[in-house]
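Re: beginner question about structure tokens

> Can someone show what the tokenized structure looks like for a real chain? I only ever see the sequence side.

Sure, here's an example I had lying around. Input first:
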Amino acid sequence: MNCVKWLRSLTGGAPPARFYVVISDGQESPFREDKYTPPYDTDPRVHNLPVFNRAIPDLEFEQDYRSSVRAFPNLSDAFEFAGHCNLVNLRLLVFDRVNDEWIYNSGEVEKAIEQLI
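And the corresponding structure tokens:
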């Protein structure tokens, strides 16, 4: 089962309404595949999230971003993964689906961070 079908199975067939994107400095933190890998694809490009300001080719993503940018449909997975990062360089973005468009939600970022600390 691919990751989109798996995620939809969690929400009764609907695509996830929210994603949490964790961004860290992958070169200075233990932000590796072997630390925490959920059973779905965490590449924000797979979910069409507007994280990057340009299209990122697969090779560039694997070399430059795979270890530092991850997207999660639930906060607990995002927190689990963030726990393996260098918290000094950590950023969290929250995107909500509104009419099939992903919108950055700064108010939810603050609420999520309050839950983390």
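Each token stands for a local structural state, so reading them left to right follows the chain. The first helix runs from residue 3 to 10.
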